[in-house]
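**User:** My hope is that you can spare some time for a protein that puzzles me. I have put the entry right below:
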Amino acid sequence: MKPRFIFLAVVLVVMGVIASSAMFTVQQTQQALVLQFGNPIAVRNEPGLHFKLPFVQNVEYYERRILDLDPPPQEAPLADQKRVNVDSFVRYRIVDPLEFRKRAGTDTNFRSIFGAQLNSAVRAEVGQVFLADMLSNKRQEVMDRITANLKEKAPEFGVEVVDVRIGRTDLPEATSASVYNRMRSDRKAYAAEIRAEGERQKLNIEADADRQSTIIMAEAKQKSETLRGEGDAARTLILSDAYVRDPEFFDLYRTLGAYEKGLGEGTTMVLSPDSEFFRYFQSSTGR
């Protein structure tokens, strides 16, 4: 009995090994490529349990999720002959594992080849624009052209390009100082130009204000002189009319006015008692 049990146990172990070698599982985030003697023969994209020939076929797994390719920053010339350090990256998805393995072989090899194509496309597009364009809305246009270029080449590797981005665009240290100094000089010149324009406008405003002030003062003086002359003329006419109507009352009125102006608080006058100035003190008629 014991040899029989041992034989059955051995058979069960062998069958278990064969069964485990004949089955493989594909996860939700994976896709599998079945190889027979190193040659790809089938692609399994559906998640779940799958079967293969034991000991003859093996399985390679590839990601279904979006992957990223981020090569090192590169120095690229611009259209104005300036050089910038460009840091770009691409997001991609493997859609055909069979074609991916045929063309790229391994993920490391693909990253090397496609990374070089990304850098080449970036240099070609960046070389057609200026530094200011990389800091404006034209940056998106550059990325769109690079994305279109890579999407055209991606099917050759069995991948789909999802997005391409230029992360940073920096000036090399050798040129950043000179560019900064030139920008500072331009800003200083522009500021001086604005100040000069402001000073010119200030002088024009002050000159116009002085001119208007002179005109207003002259017109006001002319008007005041005219009114004063008209007032004096009217006063003379009134006084003349009053003198004609009642000369004695007019003399009294004028004398009282002289008293009001001449005899104030603290006034000292040395005059003869029979002086003409005090004639109304001696007589109500002034005689």
Observations:
- The mean pLDDT is 79.
- Strands lie at 23-26, 30-36, 39-44, 48-51, 57-63, 67-69, 74-77, 83-94, 159-170.
